[in-house]
Amino acid sequence: MTDYEKLAELLYPEITKTPEDYEKIYPERGLSEGARVSRFAPSPTGFLHLGGLFAAMIARLNTRTTDDGVFFLRIEDTDKKREIEDGVSAIITGLTDFGMQPDEGVMGFNEESGNYGPYQQSHRKEIYQTIAKSLVKQGLAYPCFCSEDELTALRAEQEKAGTLIQGYFGEWAKCRNLTFEQQKANIEAGMPFTLRLRSPGNPDNRIKFEDLIKGKIEMPENIQDVVLLKTDGIPTYHFAHAVDDHFMRTTHVVRGDEWISSVPLHIQLFKACGYRVPKFAHISPIMKEDNGGKRKLSKRKDPEASVSFYTESGYPKESVIEYLLTIANSNFEDWRKTNKDAPQSAFPFNLKKMSGSGALFDLVKLNDVSKNVISLMTAEEVYEKSLKWAQAYDEELYNLMSADEAFAKGILSIDRGTAKPRKDIAKWDEIKDYVSYFYNSIYTPDHTLPENISKEDAAAILEAYLKVFDANDDKDTWFNKIKELCEPLGFTPNVKEHKKNPEAFKGHVGDVSTVIRVAITSRRNTPDLHSIINLLGNDEIKARLESTLNEYK
């Protein structure tokens, strides 16, 4: 038995499995050639960030470019100091709310699905230690007995010496060349230790790799003897993710570009363990304009950084994903113009068409995208989705809309399903205002007139209209009655005629309609007024017209 093998047994006597055992437990997936397997692997340290949702969407879309690709959720919870209570549930809820459910992995509280688990790193300790023991046997890893104070002193020494690189490597790696006897004595004395990689890196060497988003990247080789296992035997992120991505058979690592600097180390770890290196795709962060500059969306500063902001505001999941797709691939908007009714899943997403620089988050554009998405929904869809939102966030609206389903759907049907549907609603928290004039309990009359119409003229219009009004008129009859009111009151039924000679008239038929619209809805711009009148009915319309008439008099 070599000294390395003796050391491995001394360090991990309780580990009896070998890497080969885990190769059998987690075999190749048996997917078709070229099938992509990718993951979203967050830490449960807070709410799901919009950037996290974006990364999950990209990873999932990447797997969907192949017929039997797999998208899984892994929870990287080895850093217990940063973990928050119920952080896993927050991640799963965030993904589910926006249609990013994984094919396998962590599916809920203490719930997993798939053959490559456990999918929480805190449950995989034995796997990591098995691979670590194998690395020790090969002389590729060693125990480090340096205390925090010693490591602090080491960094201070390097700063004083002016070394180009600071860290645990080369001549500074004090425990790298301890003899077996020294190591054994320290272990038997109960000295705490971390396990470090014996880096084969050379400071003169560089690595090259092809990033599927950023293109060709060249960087110095890793020379640091990084920690693989901490003193409690729990792995660092770097080591755990390499072991997990291998045994979960990940083909594509999709993640934020803050990890690019770690790629030389990660490639080195994959190779040291004897694993095939996956393909890398590093996503640029979502940025925000701030005082003339740009910065990353911040969890602390920006409420829109949390996906819960979109749920609580009532953005449909389809709208949020549609907007993120415009950020993901620059050709999405052109595709959408020619594929208006196609599902988002039909878009031919391509990692290589992603921007190499950070996309700028634009709430105004999100609202425009969402208005368009909602305008294409049926009244039934809008009713069901907005009612579900109201049940959670607006009890008053929920009670109003659920009390008379047919009436509520009638409101939402107006000007919907036409060649040019109205785009009034961007999110469900705007529904209450949108429907308010249909419900007296939340309707606040405001009969302010446009500047070009006097109260006297408005009163005359309403007085004349009340004499001919009938809520049961068809649209043509209704509009012809309004036209017939015009000339006796000094208005023209012909808009073009008014444009040619505006001084000859008090206004045109549109102005007459506006007076009636304001009297009934307190708004100058609404969906089809005839449909509104028909829905509210004779008694309610007459009551509003008479009340407004008295106000103008």
Describe the secondary structure blueprint for this structure.
Layout: H1 3-11, H2 19-25, E1 37-40, H3 50-64, E2 70-73, H4 87-97, E3 104-108, E4 111-113, H5 125-137, E5 141-144, H6 148-161, H7 180-188, E6 194-197, E7 206-211, E8 215-220, E9 227-229, H8 237-247, E10 252-256, H9 263-272, E11 279-283, E12 286-290, E13 293-296, H10 307-313, H11 317-328, H12 332-338, E14 359-360, H13 363-375, H14 379-393, H15 395-403, H16 405-413, H17 431-435, H18 455-468, H19 475-486, E15 491-492, H20 495-500, E16 507-508, H21 509-521, H22 529-536, H23 538-552
Parallel strand pairs: 1-2, 2-3, 10-11, 12-14, 15-16
Antiparallel strand pairs: 3-4, 5-6, 6-9, 7-8, 12-13
Structure description:
- The chain has 553 residues and is of the alpha/beta class.
- 44% of the residues lie in helices and 12% in strands.
- The chain has 23 helices and 16 strands.
- It has helices at residues 3-11, 19-25, 50-64, 87-97, 125-137, 148-161, 180-188, 237-247, 263-272, 307-313, 317-328, 332-338, 363-375, 379-393, 395-403, 405-413, 431-435, 455-468, 475-486, 495-500, 509-521, 529-536, 538-552; strands at residues 37-40, 70-73, 104-108, 111-113, 141-144, 194-197, 206-211, 215-220, 227-229, 252-256, 279-283, 286-290, 293-296, 359-360, 491-492, 507-508.
- It has a four-stranded mixed β-sheet with strand order 1-2-3-4. It has a three-stranded antiparallel β-sheet with strand order 5-6-9.
- The longest helix has 15 residues, at 50-64.
- It is elongated.
- The termini are far apart.
